[in-house]
Structures are given as structure tokens and as C-alpha cells.
Amino acid sequence: MEFTRRDFGKLAITAASASSLLAAKPDSKWGGVQVGINAPYSFNRMSGTADKILEYMTQLDLSATELRLQPVEAFLGAPGVYASANDAPGRGPAAGGAARGGSGRGGGGAAARGGSGRGGGGGRAPLTPEQLAAAEALSKWRLALSMDKIKDFRKKFEDAGVLIQILKIDNFNSFSDEVTDYFFNVAKTLGCHALSTEGNLADVKRLGSFADKHKMMIGYHGHTAGAGGEAFGAPENWEKAMEVSKYNGINLDLGHFLVGQQTSPIPFLTKYHDHVTHVHVKDRKLTGATVPFGQGDVPIVEVLQLMKKNKWKFQATIEYEYQTPPDSDVLTELHKCVEYCRKALA
What we know:
The chain has one domain (about 25-345): Alpha-Beta Barrel (TIM Barrel). By secondary structure, it is α/β, with parallel strands linked by helices. The radius of gyration is 21 Å and the shape is globular. It has helices at about 5-25, 50-60, 70-75, 130-145, 145-160, 175-190, 205-215, 235-245, 255-260, 265-270, 300-310, 330-345, and strands at about 30, 35-40, 65-70, 165-170, 195, 215-220, 250-255, 275-280, 285, 290, 315-320. Helix 6 (about 175-190) crosses helix 7 (about 205-215).
């Protein structure tokens, strides 16, 4: 078969178009609001490696993330660390899968948890001698790590069009001072504006002092805690934390706040928006059930429109937690979540 000059011209145009599509980067900043995702947590029962996270986010057209530490350290070869529970030897869907939330919540192996100079912390069971040895090996690895490798990791994500805006640390207050400094240095090198963690009031004085030192926010994640107690979720606990340090902040989970306080999160968000590092976007019924976006009582659209109107710069971070329908899959459902947010900001 012979090709004319016109045929070659058409092929060149087609190739250029295909190249342009391949080079396209995700963009989920709509109406001035940066929409992102909690990774790899939201990729339930899927691999949470750095490469897979970028693959998923490109498919979803998401250009920002709250990234857990485990995929970073696993990619760089940290001893005893795996990117998510689904990436651990003998785990993942082929071996029956991880428990709900396994793709990141506390993942990383025994070496990644607790230890490192401050004991288990938070009422957790004491580490075994083997776990203590693993924790010590990981601590030494962390303190010897060149930040140039973290810069390379950041470049990998930014070259793909993804910003790492928040770094999530599990059991944040259970590490030595040196390792705690390391976490802040990693976050700054990745280009983050904040770290995030679960925690309680017993953590905020010490962690707040590190936040002051590094001049970097910590967003304390709230669950469904009611008034009283040490856990975040009740407004007064965040207020107490902010009194200790101006860098102690709020990772406001819209769904948990609604259920825990039985009221809209909007008044609290409006009052303290200057202290919010990011909001977790999910939908829940007042009764507690987690449901697909738009089927619950969380004012997702109103919050996103408020962020747009007031030009608030913190990330709206999607968290996928509702049950995947039997005739669907996680990425299909996440596409629906992303589209819901995009339309809300149109």
C-alpha cells in the first residue's frame, strides 16, 4: 500500500494529537478550589505504591493529594515499610484483601509504627523485641536519608501533574525528637503546606512546639467525638489545641463532624477557616451511614461553593469510604465523586 503526501500529513496530525493526549496532566482546580484525594487510603483494596497512585490520579483527573508517608518511604526503600496494607507480602485482593481502610491507614509494617524513641504511645500494646529492632532500623534509615531523594520523589509527582500538599503521619506523637524533625523536613521538601494526623489533646503541646519550630501547620483530624474527652471532633478540643500553638490546625472531616455534632460543619468552618489545613469530603446520613456523594446530609455542595466564594486555599480532599456496589469498582465510584465536586464548583 502506497501513502501520498496527504496521507503522511494526516498521520502526522493524528500522532501529534495522540502525543498531546498522552502528555495531558490532571487538573482538579475548579473555580479556584483545589480538589484532591487522601491517598492511598481512598484506593481501597488496591495497590498503594507511588506509581499506582499516580496512575489512578491521572485517570481521575486529580491534581493534588494528601499523601500518607508510607508510599514515599516504600518507594525509597525504607526497611520494613510497604506502601499500603494491600502491598504487604501475602496481602491484597489475591490473598483476601486488607481490612477496610487497609490501603494506608496504619500501613507500613511493624517498623513504621511507634517505637523510634518514645515507646508505643496512645495506649497501644508494647512492641516486641523484633518490632523494636525493626523500628530502630527504620529510625536510623530515616535520619541518614538525603533530602535530595525526597526532592526526586516530589519531582516524580509534579512531572505527572500532581501536587503533594499535605503529608499524613500515623501515630505522630510516638516518635523521637529527631524523627519528628525528619517528618517536618520531608513535608517541606515535598512541597507540603501542612502535615496531618489523628491525635488527641495530649499530643498538641509537644507537636505544637515542633510546628512552631518549623513554622508549618499540623491539621488534627477529627472523628465523630462528642463533647468532652481527648479526641478531636468536638470544636472545643480544636480550640484548646489552637491556644497552645498558632500552627496547631484543623483537618475538618465534614462527614464525621456532621454525625458527631449533629449539626452542619459550615458555621465552624466559617469561624475557623484560617486554621483549616484541609477538609475531608465524604457524605453521610445524620444517623451515621456513609453513602455516595449527594445521597447524605453533608452539605458538600454548599461547602465547596463557600470555598469558591471566599477564595479559601485549603484542599478539598475526597475520602472514599462508602461500600462499593457489587456491579461497580473503586475507580468508577471515585469518578462519580470527582464529577460531583467538579459540578459543584462549575
